[in-house]
Structures are given as structure tokens and as C-alpha cells.
Write a structure and sequence with these properties.
The protein has 12 helices and 8 strands. It is an alpha/beta fold.
């Protein structure tokens, strides 16, 4: 397995060091830097070019979204897994809008963290189930957005939920008893209906604009 180079940006020293020790126990994970401030984080990016950053939502005096905005301003194309204390709707939406590929809650298990790291590192989107449900239940789409929502078939809804759960195409095909080719075809249909080109964009648009029509029935919201 390809080694994933990770940068940890968290202003809590004990959490940062404990997380680093956990990750270094696995041969395919390598922590290249630990940072406590935005300045340290930006400097470490230029020195180490990590594959993935684990970014605290509250990095000392600044928000994690501020760090994300600065990375984008500098045209640094980094995969970011935002780590937060609470499944707050506003914070999660802000993280997705700022460009985070994943949202992880600090109280979740190490196994979930490792799964989230793997998903985000290979280009998937990963949102903690509690954060996902907070996002969906809290969304109140406008009438304009509701009018623009194209209805999804039952199969399309199931594939979309699989994407939201962070599953790869192979796992979605296995759980739904479909071929991978069929899953890929459904994802292309979802991209077309949402007007997007990536899974991360699909997740954001589905939550922000069409959750009432696409997600609440499927997730039991």
C-alpha cells in the first residue's frame, strides 16, 4: 500500500501527539509534521507536501476554515479531513464550502478515523454519520432550490447514501448487489442531476440544496 504522508494541525498538544503515535503504528501512514498554528501549518505544507492534512476546526486563534481558505488562495491542492468536537450543522457546511473532503468527530473511534483517512486520501468524501444527520436534519432548502431539484430513483438514492457514508464504488456495488459498472453509471447520472463533476461537489450540493428531496427520506430524517 502506498504510504500516506499526513500533516496534523491541532492546537492541543496531547491530542496531537497521541494521534501521531496512533498513526505511526501503521506502516502505510507517516506523520510528516505536527502544527499548532496556521503559520506553522502553511509553512509545513511548503516543506513537506503532505498527501493529507488532519485539520482541527478550531486551530488556536483561527478557524480551520480560515486555514482552508488560505490554502486555496495559495493554490495548494491539499486533501483535508476536518476534525471537530461537535456535529454542528453550520460548522460542517462551512468546512465543505471551504473545500474540506471530510468531517470527523473527535469522540469517534480510532477505527473510524483510519477509515476516514483512507477514504479522503484516495479522493473519496467522508462525513461522520452524526455530522451527516445533523446536516440533513438542519437543512431548510428554499422554494427556489426545491423547484430545481430533479427527483431521484430509488437506486440513485441508495447509491447517493453509499457515497455519503464514504463507501467506494466496489463497496456500494456489493451492498446493493449491482455491478461496479452500474454503480459508476448511476454516479454519472447523479453528477448530471446535481450539475457537478466530483463526489465532494455532489455531497455538498446534495446536502445544501436538495436534502429534503434526496436525503431525508433515504436517511430517515
Amino acid at each position: 500500500m502506498h504510504t500516506i504522508r499526513i500533516l496534523i494541525a491541532d492546537d492541543h498538544g496531547l491530542f496531537r501527539q497521541g494521534l501521531s503515535r496512533l498513526l505511526e503504528t501503521l506502516p502505510y501512514l507517516h506523520v510528516v509534521a505536527q502544527c499548532a498554528t496556521m503559520a506553522e501549518t502553511l509553512s509545513a505544507f511548503s516543506r513537506h507536501s503532505p498527501d493529507l492534512v488532519l485539520l482541527d476546526d478550531d486551530l488556536g486563534a483561527v478557524r480551520g476554515t480560515t486555514v482552508l481558505a488560505e490554502l486555496r488562495k495559495r493554490k495548494i491542492d491539499a486533501k483535508v479531513l476536518m476534525i471537530t468536537e461537535k456535529a454542528a450543522q453550520v460548522a460542517a457546511i462551512s468546512a465543505l464550502e471551504a473545500g474540506a473532503q471530510g468531517i470527523f468527530l473527535k469522540h469517534s473511534s480510532p477505527e473510524q478515523l483510519l477509515s476516514a483517512i483512507h477514504r479522503v486520501a484516495v479522493g473519496e468524501t467522508w462525513i461522520d454519520p452524526l455530522a451527516l444527520r445533523a446536516l440533513v436534519s438542519g437543512q431548510q432548502p428554499s422554494e427556489k432550490n426545491r423547484e430545481g431539484a430533479q427527483p431521484l430513483t430509488a437506486r440513485q438514492k441508495k447509491v447517493l447514501v453509499g457515497i455519503l457514508d464514504g463507501f467506494a464504488n466496489k463497496e456500494i456495488s456489493s451492498s446493493l448487489k449491482l455491478s461496479e459498472g452500474s454503480v459508476k453509471a448511476v454516479i454519472r447520472q447523479l453528477f448530471q442531476k446535481a450539475g457537478v463533476r466530483t463526489r465532494s461537489q455532489l455531497v455538498r450540493i446534495a446536502i445544501e440544496k436538495y436534502s429534503a428531496d434526496w436525503l431525508k427520506p433515504a436517511l430517515g430524517g
